[in-house]
Amino acid sequence: MVLLIASLVASIQMSIFLTVPQIAVGSECDPAYAEVCIPPAPPDLDCGDITQRRFRVYLPTDSDVPAGLTEFDPHGFDGDDDGIGCER
């Protein structure tokens, strides 16, 4: 019984770990952008500097913000704060 409970707890912990986005330390991709790999600032980039369009930008109100993310949209790709970067 104890082994079954320990196995269940380990399974739940792994499930939580896999479903909460994590920030990779030293990553070449800024964690503020969910679906694309955009380098962190500096330098500051504009939509004209990248090829990606209409990608997700994490907002502070999102329920799935990566753990430790404190700077939302550092490049300013989401000018109207709707969670979509480089819409035009």
- Reading the helices and strands in chain order gives HEE
Number of helices: 1
Number of strand elements: 2
Distance between the termini: 58 Å
How would the global form be characterised?
A: globular
* Fraction of residues in β-strands: under 5%
Helical proportion, percent range: 10-25%
Describe this protein's structure.
The chain is mainly alpha-helical and 88 residues long. It has one domain (21-88). The protein is 20% helix and 5% strand. The chain has one helix and two strands. It has a two-stranded antiparallel ribbon. The chain is globular.
In brief:
The protein is mainly alpha-helical. It is built from 1 helix and 2 strands, in the order αββ.
Keywords, separated by commas or semicolons:
88 residues, mainly alpha, 1 helix, globular
Topology record:
Blueprint: H1 2-19, E1 55-56, E2 84-85
Antiparallel strand pairs: 1-2
